[in-house]
Specification:
- By secondary structure, this protein is an all-alpha fold.
- It has nine helices and no strands.
- It is flat and about 75 Å long.
Length: 245
């Protein structure tokens, strides 16, 4: 735990020495995996707990359905108050009937008996989300890391795959803020901060791992994104040219 905290502090401060020591470590990849799993699990536990509380505290289905009916009626009224075309009473009734039918289907699905009572089912769902969170993040980290490694090698990079993945694993440290994503307004801002700061740390990791300057590191980071976009643009131009003939 002390090692993880030290790595986290160095990553947030963009401390070059921390990145260099991690790169030179014999178990650089293992440390990267440990960091990804630890932070992802912490965030997964927090978000799953919040999701469980919300599910348990959610209003009863009939209350939600009543609120949906009111919302549909208000939306229809607003269409006319803002200058929209007046709705024929039959059309309005037809829309309301469709909504009622949809709610009825949803109600029947919700009433289908399950092997577990609702609270127990929600607990298992929350545990599943928490446990699967590290695996999802690890897959994304390794997949994109391999693409960046190929781009970096094209640009003259020298890092091994273990060094590349280990150094870039530090990007996950700011994402501990994702655990507060449930907080209204502030949660979104914290998640955005984590995302941006994570990219900065990732680029730093690429630069240290490959002995790059920041311009090359940024290019290596962006190439896996830019190449598909470029190919799609070329394909779109070709299709437009063929259609225009």
């Amino acid at each position: 735990m002390r090692e993880i905290l030290r790595l986290g502090r160095g990553a947030l401060l963009l401390d070059t020495q921390t990145f260099m020591e991690l790169k030179a470590s014999r178990d650089v990849f293992e440390k990267g995996v440990t960091l990804i799993v630890a932070i992802s699990f912490i965030v997964g536990i927090a978000t799953s707990a919040v999701g469980f509380i919300r599910e348990v505290a959610a209003p009863l289905p009939e209350v939600r359905f009543r609120e949906m009916r009111q919302g549909v009626n208000q939306a229809l009224d607003m269409m006319q108050s803002f200058g929209g075309p007046p709705l024929d009473p039959k059309m309005r009734q037809m829309i309301q009937n469709y909504v009622e039918a949809g709610m009825e289907i949803g109600s029947r699905i919700a009433e289908i008996p399950t092997p577990l009572p609702s609270p127990a089912r929600e607990i298992f769902k929350a545990i599943g989300r928490a446990v699967s969170s590290p695996f999802r993040r690890m897959f994304a980290w390794m997949f994109y890391g391999l693409l960046v490694l190929v781009a970096a090698k094209i640009l003259g990079g020298k890092a091994t795959i273990q060094q590349m993945l280990g150094c870039t694993s530090l990007y996950v440290v700011p994402h501990v803020l994702d655990a507060f994503g449930f907080v209204p307004c502030l949660g979104g801002l914290l998640s955005l901060m984590a995302f941006v700061w994570g990219i900065v740390i990732y680029v730093k990791g690429v630069a240290v791992a490959h002995d790059f300057g920041y311009s090359k590191a940024i290019l290596a980071f962006l190439l896996p994104l830019l190449v598909p976009i470029f190919l799609l643009l070329v394909l779109a131009i070709v299709v437009i040219a063929l259609v225009a003939r």
